[in-house]
Write a structure and sequence with these properties.
Two copies of one chain form a homodimer. Chain A is mainly beta. In chain A, strands 8, 9, 10, 11, 12, 16 and 17 form a seven-stranded mixed beta sheet that branches. In chain A, strands 34, 35, 36, 37, 38, 40 and 43 form a seven-stranded mixed beta sheet that branches. In chain A, a hairpin with a 2-residue loop joins strand 36 (547-551) and strand 37 (554-562).
Chain lengths: 647, 647
């Protein structure tokens, strides 16, 4: 088309006009390009990734923050960080865990002493297998915790600790209608985190998969309706849920089917070798809808306060099957139609694809090839295999697009492989073909494509979550950022790296990219809201109702904040008093956020318009302590202050 | 290419070839531009701000993190966050305050209980008034603390609490050769933070300016050689140091010369009104080189452990003068040649410029117009005035470029004003002229231009540190990011907003932009280094020397970390033991960072290549607790684990 239109222009005599028109525009670009040493593809990339001042990104990426304990919200394609959501670790900017009683209650829900987490796999809530933009769930690998984030205000509402194990990696993943949030144990311990010597590893240590029941109306997980299934003490890893044809099924892959345990100071081999001996590990196949029924039956007892289906029960009830999968797998990913289950052993250059219809048939006809040493039946590999495609070294994780293409991250190759699925997406020779590879920089872990793990994927972009940056950015000392690379994946075009985004405040493991239009966040809180309950706060205060109430040694201060003063601006107390300050923002204007800090009392909270927060402390230092607004709010922000006087 | 040769064949001629060449490149751009609705200036902006994959930014911006308690390091012109430096608040990703004994010692240096801060004004170390790239200093407004960051590894080395006051805003600023780091009190309290009722405000509350002595060889502040000067209890604000002709002088502006104190629940007026009554406040002029001599003399006593020059002494010794300045000023900024002192009252539409040569003369000839109520002489306004330029509403802060242009942020106008300095930069009618204004989005506080507060400024870019984003980014809930806007300021061109960068994890107040080439950061630590001392660690361990040493109830573990195992990978202890794990990274490869976490024990540290860290805890929970590498380091990262078994 371009050729023809170009020639038509030329021959029809508009040449000069055209030249002038484009020249005036292009020359600017070329000057800059020359000055900055940009190529045409650089320029293209610049335009592709640039969002003009004030224009909004059409996509949002929710990326885990790893051991920062937070979630990053990034706009696509501009690759700009728009929000951080503190979850397991304090964030003094948002007043998370730094004085707010609400945030303290939520953090303590996951264990009183714990004030950091290793956040791995975010999962957006789904309806019919598609993101519905209501909630985000995350896990804490370090402490086997799960958390619920409400996307009305992008803040954490609940943290729960798993009573059966202490370390997870497979978490969190949701069933297609968010009935359950899935979490699996990884570095296994005895059930209930009890003591047992390492020599008893095979006998007393166990794996577990937990089904956390989510109550959408309450926006909270319901512990009493949650249940778990006991598994062999392999290292259970990533999970995916069946959808459409495979709805009702759950897939977990595993490492260390060797059942290796540590002791490298006493001649035991290094774990990374000991757990990589077998050529094949076990993909776990679980009928979770059947398991749900079993869990509700009288036969299922509680362990450490959680309904637990024993391994024996699971086998007897035919809830659990294994399939051999190439050694040391990472990702297990179900295709949009639910019929293909893609696994990749990171020490095998292939992706291995199982077909659900074959799998169901194999279970129905009991096509098994023996059992593992805990008695779990192993389905015949050939009876469930759809295809194996050689994609390159270190395949980890696969995402999909709307045209039936799959994208697999290759850790050792530092590349992304694009390949085609089989029927109904691609037929005959067009199916199961490696089509393209693009280099990324460097050491890609997961990758994330537009709604690429849902029943209705998008297209256009994938983000390469690279673990190492090495030479990509200026030297800023021995600790380097991670590197997110935006990759264009439109239709049949060759993939192209468009942009590098350094991530220097987190270590994202997994991310999900959602169409921004699916979200309906609040702009401001309704007046007098508690962010913990998302309901009106009992201690909310209105203008003119501010007061200081003393009962014995307890002083309750009902304070309002509005540009540009705090009322009251003077609080006189006695040393030893318990002071509770109930802060109400009575602002209604978008972005009119205040902070509240007290000098030397280790307290800071964030007060978005309409929000209510309570801070509580013992006045154990005598003296004079200014308090003030910490969020620059107006021309008279510096004047928004007051004094706590402790006699 | 086919297009080009085809057309070249049809027609020939230089213009045509040029046209085609341009055309072929521009057409790609135009297609994309059309698709994305970009204008030519959008495209230009895209190219200006885009840094191609792998190309390094020529400038680094160090931006304060506000109540996040951290520093942001941003590359220019790409406006990408390359590093965050935790200072006053914990950062679990970097293991800052989450288990590392070194970081705990440094944090405790600023007060045991304090685990957050409000970081306001970064100051790079200088040699002859120019950034030397060695150190960065920052302050904590909430708790009157200062910190030292070493730019070899971009990490915090020292935190100190001011013994005389509890809240600062004017901090930190350095003398032209970094002899001293300056900190001033803001919301004032009685000297030494003692108790006195609010009714004694005028009599017993005091302002203070502290001169922290910096020992460059040690890379630490030396408390015993530091000193302070007592000031009236106005709210001292921003500071700048004289340079070149004005070297040896210090300028502080102030608010609340009304001496207003709070009590708005008892009919007292709101503070923001009470402290804005006077038309003029006081610019403080201090001869710091003379003060240094006085501080060393026998006559100067210590208060709360700090050498303190009393207000009486300061007046007697002629160390301190006032100059009237327009009400409620924010910035005071000295021109590159040191001769002009620019102040702007945020409730006055002018910038007011004083001239140092006139000021020196006024002091020499004692041209005073009375004294304030504490006896400080006030220099005659007209005798020191150089110019007043009307720039717009809410002028806050001014920066300079190499051509003698000044850039002033206008909070109420949401704009930046560009104006010309007087001789020697601009003469006659060209001097003291408002030249250009550009709108920013929204509510600009400080602005930062390339080395724009030094004796040798650069040119090309300023960054507008906007406090509100409002409509600039997709809605992500009631808490919005700040918005940094990159503005082109080249020569006499009109200023242009090039790029919006959301800041959703901090609230920057001030920033400095330095040429990246001035910094010489380490790529990896020398083997066996303590990051706290930047010297070899006494507990460093080499491969093969790993061991577990029990003495009574204390267990010392000497552990190494290298891809992909931890040695030892099994630690057996008894409940109640004190466990100290001394971790040595024996990696030498750039970017080969490991983390170390223990499940349920609230511990995570970061181990860059060569670094040594110690974690210490009481084994107060019995059971089995995995420990593992938290920083994705290799294909076998998941296998890099071990177990703490507590019997």
């Amino acid at each position: 088309m371009m050729i023809l239109s170009r020639i038509r222009f030329i021959l029809s005599g508009y040449l000069v006009l055209l030249c002038i028109a484009t020249q005036s525009q292009a020359s600017v670009l070329e000057d800059i390009a020359k000055k900055r040493g940009l190529t045409a593809s650089d320029m293209r990339a610049a335009l592709m990734t640039y969002t003009p001042s004030g224009k909004h990104d059409p996509y949002l990426m929710f990326a885990s923050g790893g051991h920062a304990g937070s979630v990053l919200v990034i706009g696509l394609p501009s690759m700009r960080l728009i929000k951080t959501i503190p979850v397991f670790s304090p964030d003094s900017w948002q007043g998370w865990g730094t004085g707010s009683l609400d945030s303290k209650r939520i953090l303590d829900g996951g264990g009183k002493a714990l004030r950091w987490g290793d956040l791995h796999h975010p999962a957006l809530s789904e309806t019919n297998g598609v993101y519905d933009g209501q909630f985000l769930f995350v896990n804490d690998k370090a402490n086997a915790r799960v958390a619920v984030i409400d996307l009305r205000d992008f803040s954490t509402k609940q943290i729960l600790q798993n009573p059966l194990f202490v370390n997870d990696h497979g978490g969190t993943f949701v069933t297609p209608n968010t009935e359950y949030i899935i979490e699996t144990s990884q570095y296994n311990v005895p059930l209930g985190a009890r003591y047992a010597p390492m020599t008893d590893y095979k006998k007393k240590y166990r794996g577990v998969v937990t089904f956390w029941k989510f109550d959408r109306a309450q926006g909270k997980i319901n512990l009493s309706q949650s249940f778990s299934i006991e598994l062999p003490p392999y290292w259970q890893d990533i999970v995916d849920l069946g959808k459409k044809v495979s709805d009702g099924y759950l897939f977990i892959n595993s490492i260390n089917t060797e059942l290796a345990s540590p002791d490298n100071m006493n001649q035991k081999p290094q774990l990374e070798m000991a757990v990589s001996r077998n050529d094949m590990d076990f993909l776990h196949v679980i009928d979770w809808k059947k398991a749900e029924k079993v869990a509700k039956s009288a036969g299922t007892q509680k362990t450490a306060g959680m309904k637990l289906i024993t391994l024996k029960q699971a086998i007897q009830e035919k809830l659990l099957y294994f399939i051999h999968e190439p050694k040391s797998p990472h990702g297990v990913d179900v295709s949009p139609d639910g019929n293909y289950i893609v696994v990749s052993g990171k020490l095998d250059p292939h992706v291995t694809v199982f077909e659900f219809n074959k799998l169901k048939n194999a279970i129905a006809q009991n096509l098994v090839q023996g059992k593992d040493e805990y008695g779990v039946p192993i389905l015949k590999f050939d009876s469930v295999l759809a295809a194996q495609i050689e994609v390159g070294l270190g395949p980890l994780h696969t995402q999909f697009d709307k045209q039936g293409y799959a994208y697999t991250s290759l850790f050792l190759d530092s590349a992304i492989a694009k390949w085609s699925l089989g029927e109904p997406y691609h037929k005959g020779n067009a199916a199961w073909k490696l089509l393209d590879k693009v280099s990324v920089h460097y050491n890609i872990g997961h990758l994330s494509c537009v709604e690429g793990d849902t029943a209705e994927p998008g297209e256009g972009y994938c983000v390469s979550l690279n673990k190492w940056a090495i030479d990509r950015f200026p030297n800023v000392g021995p600790l380097l950022p991670q590197n997110f690379q935006l990759v264009s994946t439109t239709g049949s075009e060759k993939m192209q790296v468009l942009y590098d985004m350094p991530i220097p405040n987190a270590e994202p493991h997994y991310a999900q990219i959602v169409k921004a239009e699916r979200l309906k966040p609040w702009s401001v809180y309704p007046l007098g809201m508690s962010a913990e309950t998302m309901k009106p706060s009992p201690v909310a205060t209105l203008a003119g109702k501010e007061r200081i109430v003393r009962k014995g040694n307890t002083v309750d201060v009902y304070m309002t904040t509005i540009r540009s003063h705090l009322t009251p601006d003077l609080i006189n107390v006695k040393k030893g008093d318990l002071v509770r300050i109930h802060l109400s923002s009575i602002e209604r204007a978008l972005d009119a956020t205040h902070g509240f800090a007290i000098s030397r009392y280790n307290i800071n909270v964030s007060l978005e318009p309409g929000k209510v927060e309570t801070v509580e402390f013992k006045a154990d230092q005598s003296g004079v302590f200014p308090y003030y607004c910490t969020e620059f709010c107006s021309a008279l922000h510096l004047e928004m202050t007051g004094y706590l006087v402790v006699q």
